[in-house]
Amino acid sequence: MSLFLIAGIALTGFLAAGLGTMVGLGGGVFVVPILAVVLGVELKAAIAASAVCVVLNSLRGSSVYLQRGLVNVKLAMVLQVSTAVAAIVGGLIVIFAPVQILKLLFAATLALTIGVMIARPNGGKRVKSGPDPYGLRASFDRPDDRGPAEYVPQHVRSGIGLSSVAGLTSGMLGIGGGAVQVPIMNTVMAVPLRAAVATSTFMVGITATVSALIYAGAGLVDVAVTVPAMAGIVVGAQMGGQLGSHVPVKMLRTLLIAVLLGLTIAMAADGLGFL
Amino acid sequence: MKQAQRDKNHTDPSSPYDPGGVGGLYRLVSLVGIVVASAGVIGELHLVGEIRRGLWSLEGVSTALLSGDPSALTTLGIWILIAGPIMALLSVFYHGLRQRSSTAVFLSGIVLMVIILSIPIKTWLQGGG
To answer: What's the DSSP call for residue A272?
Structure first.
């Protein structure tokens, strides 16, 4: 592999994580299609590299969220069972499915992500008290010193069922699945957005570990793709987090939707054999 | 009072917000993992001129490390990162045992089992191949 390609992979990770972090998405949803379609990296190697990067990003993000008391660990464990099982199924699909099918599935997921970014569904109304059969009630300190925000997650069974979609997506495509998991927790389960993002960040690391182990067992992890992408993503996410409050997010969101649309079309065309 | 409670939550490893001090563990694991993997890649490029594409197996990595192969460091860094969430689950499991929280023990135990199952599953499906 040439140094030029290694630098391209690192730059892809840097831009994807930097821009993705600014709009609240992980980098995987950008990294995999750019590596596969633009840089010509084999799709399964790109998916495996992305899964390892998701683990790294989750470790870094969760460490901050955990110490701020934003992660609902018990809720994460409840949802994680179905998510992890679905990730195994997704990982096996990557191993055994033809690449063309994976490309079409990725294109469909990108289209779904665009839909979520455009629709930005309203969160469910926070429930502060009431029945809590699973003991998932939690609270976190709000940054504006308005006191702790208490909440009781609702519709837990639906959340468990729907979380398997996030796990399947993550296992199948090597992405974090936060674009699926956060709306499930925030909209369906009425978990406040900050807690949903933090809990999802914690969960995706565990989910991606399941996928990464399956990919590693199948020999799909290409170190020459994974480590440069990791380095780019670490630096990009750091810079994206710091620049996030200084850039016009609305304009950036529009730009990223356009990029995602382009990647969706390219991935679908590739999957259908037009490229 | 509220600040004191918040400080306690941030530093106390037994805080219900961060069972077992997983946040600190994650910071350490991510730092060590990326430093070791990067050192391996730099060593490979410097000594060999190219990066070994595949990962060493868990058994092979120790042999390669002992023989001074820098690619083993790269693999070790990646394995350390992947082990991070597993260590977190073990920590939640152990914390649950100490706190006598059967739900935490049960759920983290199941997730750990799923992860352990994911390691040999491909071999099983291919009939031991």
So the answer is: T
Cβ–Cβ gap B115/A84 under 8 Å: yes
Between A and B, how many CB-CB pairs are < 8 A? 168
Domain ranges of chain B: 21-125
pLDDT one-digit tens code per residue, B71-102: 999 999 999 999 999 999 999 999 889 888 88
pLDDT, tens digit, for every residue of A225-269? 999 999 998 888 888 777 766 777 677 778 888 888 988 998 899
For an interface test with B, which of A68, A210, A225 has the most B Cβ atoms less than 10 Å from its Cβ?
A210
Domain ranges (residues) in chain A: 3-271
Nearest to A81 among B10, B84, B110 (CB): B110
A67–B103: do the CB atoms touch at under 8 Å? no
- For residue A148, the one-letter residue type is P
| pLDDT number for residue A110 | 86
**Is B41 close to A78, i.e. CB distance below 8 A?**
no
Collapsed DSSP state (helix, strand, coil) of residue A273: coil
Token digits for B43?
A: 């060593």
- Residues in chain B with CB shorter than 8 Å from the CB of A56 are 30, 33-34, 81
Give the model confidence (pLDDT) of A4-24 as tens digits: 899 999 999 998 888 777 766
CB atoms within 10 A of CB A150: 14
- Over chain B (129 residues), the average pLDDT of each successive run of 10 is 45 52 90 93 87 84 89 93 94 89 90 88 60
DSSP character at residue A69: T
* Pick from A209, A205, A194, A124: nearest CA to A159: A124
